[in-house]
Write a structure and sequence with these properties.
Blueprint (H helix, E strand, L loop, with lengths): L29 E10 L2 E11 L4 E5 L6 H8 L7 E6 L4 H9 L2 E4 L11 H10 L5 H14 L15 H12 L6 E5 L7 H16 L3 E6 L2 H7 L2 E6 L2 E6 L1 H8 L3 E6 L6 H7 L5 E5 L2 E6 L2 H10 L6 E6 L2 H9 L6
Parallel strand pairs: 3-7, 3-8, 5-6, 6-7
Antiparallel strand pairs: 1-2, 1-4, 8-9, 10-12, 10-13, 11-12
Amino acid sequence: MGLQVVKFRAGAFGMGPPWISVAGVAGSMVCAQGLRKGFGDVEAVKGIDVDVRRGEVFGFLGPNGAGKSSTMRMIATTSPVSGGTLRVLDMDPATHGPQIRARLGVCPQDDTLDTELSVRENLTVYGRYFGLSRARVRMRADELLDFVRLTDRATSRVDQLSGGMRRRLTIARSLVNAPDLLLLDEPTTGLDPQARHTLWDQLYRLKHSGVTQILTTHYMDEAEQLCDRLVVMDHGRIVAEGTPAELISRYCTREVAELRFGVVDHEPYAAGLQGIAGRVEVLPDRVLLYADDGEAALAAAHHRGLTPTSGLVRRASLEDVFLHLTGRTLVD
C-alpha cells in the first residue's frame, strides 16, 4: 500500500511562487532516530536513522517489502510510529499531525484524481481543502498548470489524459498548498521513457526552486538523476547511505562487463571467470564481471575460451550497489 492523500482544512498560505511555501523551517526537515514500525508480529521498519536536509532530494531505495512505504507513511503522519523518535518540520507527528499535513505535499504511487472532474477542477477543488480563497485557488491552478505544461488541457476530463499527463497533474495537485516538503511515492512507475524524463525535468525544477523532496523508487537511473542523497533499505533496515556517486565508488568497480551464454544455467560459467575481475556475480540470465577495465575483462574471458552469446560493458550503477549489499537485484 502506498502513501495516502489525506484531505483536511488548514489556513491559507501566503503569496509566492506556485510551489514554494513562504514558511521557513529551522534545522532538519525530517529527523528520525531508531524509527520503528510494526504490524502485529511483523516489524516493517527496524530502527532506522534518517536526517533529511532543507532543499535536498532524498531517496529511499529498495525492493518491495523493504520498509520504504511504511517509513513514508510515518513521515506523512498517516501511520503512527511504533518506536523511536520522529520529527517532521521540527514537529512531533503524534501531537502535531494536522499542522504537519498542512505543510506537506503528497504524490501517491497510485493516481487518486477525480476522473469526473476537469483538469482545472481537480486543482481548484483540492485547493479549497486547504482554505484557499476562490480567487487564490484559481490563480494557483493557473500557475501550476503552466508549470506542469497542462494549460492547454485545463478543460479536459482526467480520463482523457495519458498516463504521463495524469502523473504531472497529480504532482501539480500536491503543490497546490505551496508545501515545505514534497513526498513522492514511486512517482514514475508505469510511465514510458519520454514521460519519465518529462517528469524528471519538473522535479529537477522544483529542487532548484528550493523544494525539499523525499521519494521512493525502484529505478536506479531515477535515483541517480534526482537524489542528492539516498538510503538503501532491505528487510526494514538501512544497509547503506550516501550520495549516488559515493555509494557506487564505495561498493563497486568503475565498470561492469555483462556476459550472457544463452538460455542456460550461468553458474558453471562463473568458475571459469574467477580471477578475471575483482568480483563475479551470477544472475539467472547473465554473469557480471566487476572490473575497472570492462573491455579487458571481456577480452580475458575470450582468452580463456569462453564465448558468450552477447557481452557489453557499462558503468557501475546503484543496482550493482544493491546486488553487492543484499545478494539480489532490486526487481527480485
